[in-house]
Specification:
The complex is a heterodimer. By secondary structure, chain A is of the alpha+beta class. Chain A has five helices and five strands; from the N terminus they run E-E-H-E-E-E-H-H-H-H. Chain A has two domains: 72 residues, Ubiquitin-like (UB roll) (Roll); 69 residues, Orthogonal Bundle (DNA polymerase, domain 1). In chain A, strands 2-1-5-3-4 form a five-stranded mixed β-sheet, with helices on one face. Chain B is globular and about 80 Å long. Chain B starts with 5 loop residues before the first helix and ends with a helix. Classes of the chains: A alpha+beta, B alpha+beta.
Chain lengths: 156, 750
Amino acid sequence: MKIVFKINGKQVSMEVKPSLLLIDLIRDVLKLKGTKPGCLEGECGACSVIVDGEAINSCMYLAINVNGKEVSTIEGLTGTENPLHKVQDKMLEHGAVQCGFCTSGIVMTTKAYSDKCLEEGITPTREEVKKSLEGNLCRCTGYAKIIDAAEAVYKK
Amino acid sequence: MKNIDSKGHVTGKSIYLDDIPTIQGTLFGVIFDSPVAHGHIESIDYSKALALPGIQTILTSKEIPGENQIGGIFPDEELFAEEDVHFQGQPIALILAESEHIAFQARKLIEIKITEKEAIVDPREARKKNQLIFPPRTFSLGNTDSAWSQCAHIFEGQADTNGQEHLYIEMQGAYASPLENGNIRVSSSTQGPTAVQRTIAKVLGMGMHKIEVDVVRLGGGFGGKEDQATPWAVMAALGAHVLKKPVKVVLHRMDDMRMTGKRHPYSSDYKIGLHEDLKILAYEVIFHQNAGAAADLSPAVMERTLFHSTNSYFVPNVKATAYSCKTNLPPNTAFRGFGGPQGMFVIEAALVHAANELGISAHELQKKNLLQDGDEFPYGQIAADVGLTQIWSDMEAKFDIKGAEKRVSDFNSKNSDKKKGFSLQPIAFGISFTKTPMNQARALVHIYSDGSVGVSTGAVEMGQGVNTKMLQIAADMFSIDPSKVRLESTNTTRVANTSPTAASATADLNGKALQNACYALLTRLKKSAADHFGSAASDIQFKDEQVINSGKATDMTWNQLIDQAFLERVCLTENGHYATPIINFDKEKEKGHPFAYHVYGLALTEVTVDCIRGTYEFDSVKIVHDFGESMNLPVDIGQIEGGLVQGIGWMTMEELDYDKKGKLRSNSLSTYKIPDIYSVPKEVLIEALETEGAEQAILKSKAVGEPPLMYGLGAYFAIQNAVRAFNPDAQQTFDAPFTHEKVLMGLYQI
């Protein structure tokens, strides 16, 4: 099947098998390795990417479903010359990173949620920040610093 | 200093095993494994699988040129099962195909006939049937037999802990490439590059020098990649050797969970005797370790259980015996704490049991029996610089133990459908590999002619920040900007014969080796500078990339000195070696001084149990921890927060479930739950014990990897405390994890 979509701002058109998963399109076809496979069943959130503003698990999403949509991966968050995105900055500042394997999923999930909050003019509570990350697992940090970092994204 | 990998992580640029660019012609391996836990292989028909387009070949034990043997401590584990299978998930063959997808399809086409045999999953049953991995061991102190008559109170019971899946988010994997002259280069997601190298050499029947193992970083290890990263790396290397093509083997999550061992489940019996004054007089314990189907690291894990059988307490008469029981589960393996937590849980259970029976608070008993300087551990080491009494009084002063107790009891008297509970959890964890020869490390340092520095050590970075600590050491010792230092991958051609990154001791061992290397380089550089200035080497210092002569800044920079030294043909490379002094252990006598030092600490856990639903929430965990003098507090606090939550997970929600036939039912993340963002305590407060630090620790900064996991034990006892507040008749059982289901049963048990 032919699909046309935007990835990290770039228009792409390609032939894909209907059974191809988005994560495999991203990692194996487009060679964007920042998106990580964790559980391959939609439980851990390591493979989170943003499709039309929503954070989704790319291991549970068929590639053909991005036809006509806009996909962002961690690689699209910063250009080589750009400073870090605020979410990345806060993750760094709060030391919310250990092994790093869940990190890009957490960054993308938080990015999607913070964009939404910004758009709607909302400053989420700590509980709402936690809720936004309920689909992301981290085995190293015990989450404390991840919550702190995500919460800091909304502070002026 | 923040973890030096952080920026790569938050931008998605850090490279893990599965991100290494694929070499053209790479074959992908998928493992065909045993569908049953115990049986005899009658026949296997690979023909349909082999006929699938895109399949290259299927490797079995027949293609192994060397030994079909991967056992690390004992040679009791085949790479590929030949005649019998001993656990569900035991590898039988490696399917190699042009794509992983094709290899998975082929796996479904393999037809195997197995005559099933009876499977043992319970360690006590294995002991009854005399199925032991190796003979039992006993640690003893004093004489328990004669002590019982002096005890005013004696309590006996059983305490069990279930296993724990490591759940590193990055799955197991390796990527092997054939080089010229039959050499092989292997990238592996392993905590033990040398173990991988040694085992590949054995299986391929060649020298270790022909195998290069490289590790950039791990997406989590927790012990699960200490010994059990090896099989996949050996399989990839075997494929590369046989087919002369690059081979990549990366497990999918369900394969990973099914095929790999976990933290050892233990089932134990205790008997504790107290004097009238509530001092522990005698303690006997029998541990049944569920080792699984092969030894793996079980002997060492069992030993650490014995070493930690009395946790933070002094007991004058001890008899601790452990059985390593052979069952038909995957070989259980290292997991943060390495048997220590399982040993500590039992004595904590015994103390809680005694306190409940005596109608006193468990913490009264705990406090009364805390280890003091000069006390003897059951293994002969004399406790020194014990921080426990100070830690306890710091806890009282900073976090108000009595206040917590009152808060809990006030809440409980006012609420009927919610109850609070609390617990105190002291820890004393020994640092060093208990196998003395493993306590050595090396570091290779190059100063390049432009003044920049490359550092290689035997330490593997897996998120714990060891590379950050290594970089700190080199940058501080040379007094140069950290950006001038590069931490290289862990590679067996640069640093050989490494101990695995384990036992919390990696920063100590490799850091001290690195210090030795830097010191030797500094000595040569000082001489070079002194010759230039006509002063003595002892007058030379380095500060912020400037050479200081007799306390005064000179116009010579670090870069200029390096340039000069190079022209003078001074050697700018050094290999540092370190072996921990003092330590020893005599296995015949089961006595010695196995640990360089101990890490101490105390956690105060408060929990609220919903007595209608059986759910619970941790209100807070307050910790006083003995860091020594932390060399990197943000990194060390990260270890405490993460270790604590992993320990809480083990004690509460992580329910490993094998059925009676040894089949793993909790075989994916949808059936095995690890702590998510809601499972963490609402508040985690950490205070550092003020101490002068331990000389044996790197820069007096004590090891921090494993000890905090054991603060999580307090979660179990806090929940039990709350359950008993609701139902004082709840039976005294100690059977972790305390799942919501078990809480509900406890609340309404008659």
